[in-house]
Amino acid sequence: MKNILVLFSHPKFEKSRANAILVDKVKNRKGVTFHDLYECYPDFNIDVDAERTLMEAHDIIIFHYPFYWYSCPPLMKQWIDMVLEFGWAYGPSGNALLDKKWINVITTGGSKAMYCENGTNCYAINDFLRPFQQTANLCGMGYLPPFAVMGTHKIEDETLHAYADQYDKLLDLLIQDLVVVDIGSTSFLNDIAQLNT
Amino acid sequence: MTGSILFEAIVFLLGAIICVSIAKRIGLSSVLGYLIAGVLIGPYVLGFIGNEGEDILHFAEFGVVMMLFLIGLEIEPKNFWKMRKTIMGMGGIQVASTMLLSYFLFVLFGFDWKVALTFSMAVALSSTAIALQTIKEKGLLNTTFGTSSFSILLFQDIIVIFMLGALPLLVNTDKTQTENSGEHANLLQNLPLGLQTLAILVSVAAIVVAGRFLIVPLLRKVAKTGVRELLIAAALLIVFSISFLMELVGLSPALGAFLGGVVLSNSEFKHELESTLEPFKNLLLGLFFMAVGASINFIVIAKSPLTVGGILVAVILLKGLVLFVTGSLFKLRLNQKLLLTFSLAQVGEFAFVLLSFAFSLNILEQEQLDIMLVVTALTMTVTPIIGMINERVLLPRLGTKESIKRPMDHIAKSQKVILVGFGHFGSTIGRFLRTHGVEATILDHDSNRVDFLRKMGFEVYYGDATRTDLLESAGITEANILICAMDNPEVVKQLAKTVKNKYPQVKLMVRARDRYAAYEFLNMEIDHIYRESLETSLKLASEVLSQMGFRKYTLQRQIQNFIKYDEDSLKRLAKEKKIGDENYIFKARKELEHQEKLLEQDFKRGIVEFDTHWDGEQIRAALENSKI
Q1: Which domain covers residue A187, as residue numbers?
Q2: What's the angle, vertex CA A178, arms to CA A173 and CA A179, rounded to 5?
Q3: Chain B from 544 to 603: CB within 8 A of any A CB
Q4: How high is the ipTM of this complex?
Q5: pLDDT, tens digit, for every residue of B556-585?
Q6: CA of B563, closest CA in chain A: separation in Å?
Q7: What sign does the dihedral B192-B196-B197-B199 (CA atoms) show?
Q8: Which residues contact A139 (CB under 8 A, 6 or more apart)?
Q9: Is the CATH code 3.40.50.720 the one for domain B400-532?
Q10: How far is Cα B161 from Cα B10, in angstroms, rounded to an integer?
């Protein structure tokens, strides 16, 4: 049994459609600690000690956020800057996060087709996520491919609910430690066989 | 046994306390409790009260006047104007058809046509006192059923004037001359009809004008004195004067009082007047209901039980039928129609007046008068019981009882916020809330400010918020949050204590003037305390440091840390403070000692450089160390 910490960052959650549906699924789920960063730290004054205690108590850390300008919202970056410090998260004596798992759960307005060499955004999602992958690596964490809900500008509520169910099922598998993926051959956690039967 | 006033007062009060509390405990309306108390203390059961019951009845009718004044206060003029169609429509249909049908009924019972006509007038009117008291008690005044009942009752209040005017026409002129010089004479009786109408219009206009330009300025003057009982006196004076004026021109005092209430409903004294008159109204109405109970003449019932019983059943059925049909015409839903039917099916207090007047005109004989009076009192007692059966048995079975759940309104509408104190602190709160569409109910004790703010479109009311009755009329029972933003820490403390004890479900958010006020609130176990100077002085200090070359973002973060640190020390010191209660004389010295203690703590904390984030030097130093 693994336990999961969802670090959720959304500067305007009350106006979000896709994330409202996704969050609804995981918020009160058993085995999952849902942590709403913008609600906890409206002043960006992150309580580093409390955050570290929380991290230490969980095996899988999910960074759940809308993908803005090819990156995360500013408070999440602030969180990374302040919490993942030298000497604790990395560096010679920084091994607090060793063997924990890092998963990005993101929503993007543009569709998958727009994120490729010939699309408007020129690069694939995983290219943009490199900094997070390397952050995980530096901290000795296991990095998994992202779970992505893409094209939210266009997709219907029905499809979003289907995504939410998939997210829910993924959490189930993670808790039971049943997810084994090869980062080289799997671009998205959405694509793993267990979620597509 | 019934000689002294004191004894009578004791009997009435005791009867009320015992019967009403029993009635309430078993879930009956207080009206029924009072009525039963009246029957018990009346001449036929315990005999504490004799025939003076009827005098008391007349006196206690004043409670109805006050009730209408209070209801007027809750109806703003523009809403009243909107109601004119229902008043004329529903009221007109109800009165006309009830009169017509009951006229034939009484002719069928074998009464003379004049008697039948008089009876039908009396029967057409319902009891404002009973119906409205019950409706208000259940909080149903704003439902369709509530406004419909109210409209009909208001129309009856107006039409009764014409009925009283018409009665003398039923009599041969020679008889009237001898009898009709009694109690119902008024100032205008001998004037031509045109002038009478004019006088009535003038007096109604007088109420409206006086309300705007005389009463409100008077109340402001009175309020400025700060003597509470003067305000009570002024409130009573208003109601008495309006009633007097109305009686002078032959209008119903209740109607006048209602108009006066409507005129004053826009003023800042609305809540204050309400809470001042409420206890008087309640007591007088209670007395009124008891007097009705006491006046039920059981000898008449015993003499002709069949006639009384027959008329009683027929009248209630007929009135109920008419109300049900009226409700259908105006497309009320079934449950609302049933409520309307049962709440207005009784014969009202105006019947006492009409019937006694008709008796004095020799239209009625003693026996006829007695029978009808008993029927009236009995309908007033029986309908609350039927209404209760309707609510408990009929409505749940029909499954039409309107569910209270409504789809969640917008956040701003679904929660009620009360803001007490609208000075420089509270007004900022109010303004910011308003930018989010949250309209707080505001209480303030400065009538000048209240007036000014009302002009700016705020909903502000005048009053001393530490009084529970005022808090209640401001709606504290359904409030979610109460903000104490007054200047005076003592008053804030008192208000906080009252709210915490009596309305624990309300979340308290308290302005603390300084550390010392904050200590007291902390010790009262209030969670949300806001020190008014803390953030401003830190902001100033950080600007000083910024001017000297410190970076602004770091300062911003240091302010946040300092507030956290200071709040922790506040909590710690509050506990120490709890132990030794301070002596006033030593207060200044104590405060100095306290400052010293704080500075000492700061010194121990040192110059804070514990912020290591984004600090490359730290990493360099650590890497150096690990190399060695």
Answers
A1: 4-195
A2: 85
A3: 557, 560-561
A4: 0.75
A5: 888 888 888 888 888 877 877 654 555 444
A6: 12
A7: positive
A8: A84, A89, A90, A94, A97, A98, A102
A9: yes
A10: 36
